Automatic annotation (TrEMBL):
The keyword Hydrolase applies. Pfam families: Glucosamine_iso. Pathway: Carbohydrate degradation; pentose phosphate pathway; D-ribulose 5-phosphate from D-glucose 6-phosphate (oxidative stage): step 2/3. Its EC number is 3.1.1.31. This is 6-phosphogluconolactonase. The gene is pgl.
Length: 240
């Protein structure tokens, strides 16, 4: 196992193996949701896509949570139909919602609506909903989180936005693959989340996180937009 660092900017938790990581992250998320349900009667969480968190969502769905009191939405989305297998909405439905009976889901992309209208609706819902109890984030090897890609023509605008969500064109950014058009949480949106969790696997991701913390360059490592926020420190769950 590589040396685990300590930082006053993140709460870093290293897990021995993948199974322990899945179990611990799911339990952490369930605990946050249940605490907010107990306090406010409802809870809201924002989820990321990708293969890394899918087994966590599957485990979370089996835990004792009042799912009929939970609202689920997304940290970001590709400009794809929610029924597209490459969309984050599809992954969340398959890994969580089919098991978490009663949970309400708000996709970011609305079928038949233009991108600008989808962003407007996402921001309107964020305004009138409870602040998110948690956001589950990932990070790419390029240091991006949500759809805040380094080198994107829209990155600075998204970083400076005073709204929770923004549209972003990541054309030319390798991490965006064949889906350059995105809807993404902004730092403003991340700031509203009561707890920010970063789900990481592998030594390479750990090294990227270390470099980001050393650099303090949010344009190069947008993950810093999730780290340098007021409130509780970003909680990093990592396993090799």
């Amino acid at each position: 196992m590589p040396t685990v660092f300590s930082s006053d900017r993140v709460e870093f938790i290293a897990h021995r193996d993948a199974d322990g990581w899945i179990e611990a992250v799911a339990a952490d998320m369930a605990g946050i949701l249940n605490a907010d349900i107990a306090e406010h009667g409802r809870a809201r969480m924002l989820l990321s896509g990708g293969t890394t968190p899918a087994p966590v969502y599957q485990a979370l769905a089996e835990l004792d949570v009042h799912w009929d009191r939970v609202e689920v939405s997304l940290a970001d989305e590709r400009w794809l139909s929610p029924q597209d297998r490459d969309s984050n909405a599809w992954l969340v439905r398959e890994s969580l919602l089919k098991r978490a009976e009663g949970a309400h889901f708000d996709p970011l992309v609305r079928i038949g609506k233009p991108l600008a209208e989808c962003v407007y609706t996402a921001n309107l819902q964020a305004q009138y909903n409870l602040p998110p109890s948690l956001v589950a984030l990932g990070m790419g090897n390029d240091g991006h989180t949500c759809s805040l890609f380094p080198g994107s023509r829209d990155l600075q605008r998204a970083l400076e936005s005073t709204l929770p969500y923004a549209a972003l064109d990541a054309t030319g950014c390798p991490g965006a693959n064949q889906w350059p058009l995105r809807i993404t949480l902004t730092p403003h949106g991340l700031r509203a989340c009561r707890q920010r969790l970063l789900l990481l696997r592998g030594k390479q991701k750990l090294e990227v996180l270390k470099r980001a913390l050393d650099s303090n360059e949010v344009q190069q490592y947008p993950i810093l937009a999730a780290i340098d926020q007021p409130g509780p420190r970003l909680r990093v769950h990592w396993a090799d």
